[in-house]
């Protein structure tokens, strides 16, 4: 029988903590102050980044499934992404237990670091269709993060994959939309909206996919809304550490739509 404790064994037995690399994960919290609440602030952000990683992973799979016309698996993945987004929004409740005084006690130690520097959040936005060079201001030229965001801005967005999916489902999508410059911002299109309306009229799988995409869009707007309310109650109208006006800037992002065409068609049904 193998002696699991034998130090000379060639491969140490897999354990809970070795499989999950807990030595790495649990030694990665480095508060810069002695304030009790700083650990919560770090842990919450790390959990977000893990969920961002998982969502990027799921969205890659989703785009492949859409482009191959696989409705059931696309719907399944969309359901998973929606569930993760709901957890991400709900997590704000935990951070909101931190009072303004508790946050102020260590905020100075954050220097100029800020959410503006979240590479994965920007990659997520780019995958969801954002094409905005301004985000690069916060990423040094030649940095891996900048390159990853730029790469995501040159790939088909989730909406581009949805348009290709519509073609696999037999819907007519204007060639100009399918052959567009992927690095440019998407311009809402009346012709594309007509194709989407046809899919809704058929009450087909494509209509279900479209509804799940609207969930995603609404979910991100919800996150933005909860984030800015958290910001208002925690730092009021102070400017942000990242150099923006703070809440005022964040409000300007709240009703940003990922898929404007999917919202536009609602007035036509
Ligand atoms: C007390 C908690 C928080 C405060 C006071 C806060 C404050 C801010 C402020 C003021 C900004 C604007 C950028 C700046 O000038 O600094 C910002 C941006 C951002 N924050 Fe937070 N934040 C908090 C928690 C979080 C959490 C938990 C996340 C999760 C990852 C997060 C992610 C982001 C992201 C991604 C941005 C960029 C948003 C955009 O440009 O659309 N923040 N935050
Ligand atoms: N921008 C925040 C600081 C902040 O929340 C933050 C700082 C470092 C890493 C992540 C952060 N979270 C989101 O912006 C502030 O102005 O207080």
Automatic annotation (TrEMBL):
<keyword id="KW-0349">Heme</keyword>
<comment type="function">
    <text>Heme-dependent dioxygenase that catalyzes the oxidative cleavage of the L-tryptophan (L-Trp) pyrrole ring and converts L-tryptophan to N-formyl-L-kynurenine. Catalyzes the oxidative cleavage of the indole moiety.</text>
</comment>
<dbReference type="InterPro" id="IPR004981">
    <property type="entry name" value="Trp_2_3_dOase"/>
</dbReference>
<keyword id="KW-0823">Tryptophan catabolism</keyword>
<feature type="binding site">
    <location>
        <position position="107"/>
    </location>
    <ligand>
        <name>substrate</name>
    </ligand>
</feature>
<feature type="binding site">
    <location>
        <position position="241"/>
    </location>
    <ligand>
        <name>substrate</name>
    </ligand>
</feature>
<feature type="binding site">
    <location>
        <begin position="41"/>
        <end position="45"/>
    </location>
    <ligand>
        <name>substrate</name>
    </ligand>
</feature>
<protein>
    <recommendedName>
        <fullName>Tryptophan 2,3-dioxygenase</fullName>
        <ecNumber>1.13.11.11</ecNumber>
    </recommendedName>
</protein>
<keyword id="KW-0479">Metal-binding</keyword>
<keyword id="KW-0408">Iron</keyword>
<feature type="binding site" description="axial binding residue">
    <location>
        <position position="227"/>
    </location>
    <ligand>
        <name>heme</name>
    </ligand>
</feature>
<keyword id="KW-0223">Dioxygenase</keyword>
<dbReference type="Pfam" id="PF03301">
    <property type="entry name" value="Trp_dioxygenase"/>
</dbReference>
<comment type="pathway">
    <text>Amino-acid degradation; L-tryptophan degradation via kynurenine pathway; L-kynurenine from L-tryptophan: step 1/2.</text>
</comment>
<comment type="subunit">
    <text>Homotetramer.</text>
</comment>
<keyword id="KW-0560">Oxidoreductase</keyword>
<dbReference type="InterPro" id="IPR037217">
    <property type="entry name" value="Trp/Indoleamine_2_3_dOase-like"/>
</dbReference>
<comment type="similarity">
    <text>Belongs to the tryptophan 2,3-dioxygenase family.</text>
</comment>
């Amino acid at each position: 029988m193998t002696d699991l404790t034998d130090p000379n064994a060639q491969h140490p037995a897999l354990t809970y903590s070795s499989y999950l690399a807990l030595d790495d994960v649990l030694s990665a919290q480095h508060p810069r102050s002695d304030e009790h609440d700083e650990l919560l602030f770090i842990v919450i952000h790390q959990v977000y980044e893990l969920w961002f990683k998982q969502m990027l992973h799921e969205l890659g799979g989703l785009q492949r499934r859409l482009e191959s016309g696989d409705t059931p698996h696309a719907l399944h993945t969309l359901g998973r992404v929606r569930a993760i987004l709901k957890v991400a929004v709900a997590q704000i409740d935990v951070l909101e237990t931190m009072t303004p005084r508790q946050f102020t006690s260590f905020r100075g130690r954050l220097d100029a670091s800020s959410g503006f520097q979240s590479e994965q959040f920007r990659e997520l936005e780019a995958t969801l269709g954002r094409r905005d060079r301004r985000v690069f201001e916060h990423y040094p030229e030649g940095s891996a993060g900048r390159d990853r965001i730029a790469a995501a801005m040159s790939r088909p967005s989730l909406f581009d994959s949805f348009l290709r999916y519509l073609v696999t489902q037999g819907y007519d999508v204007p060639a100009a939309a399918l052959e567009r410059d992927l690095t440019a911002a998407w311009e809402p299109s009346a012709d594309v909206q007509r194709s989407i309306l046809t899919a809704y009229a058929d009450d087909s799988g494509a209509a279900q996919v479209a509804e799940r995409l609207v969930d995603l869009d609404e979910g991100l707007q919800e996150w933005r809304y909860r984030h800015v309310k958290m910001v208002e109650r925690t730092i009021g109208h102070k400017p942000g550490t990242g150099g923006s006006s703070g809440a005022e800037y964040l409000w300007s992002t709240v009703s940003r739509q990922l898929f404007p065409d999917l919202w536009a068609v609602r007035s036509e049904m």
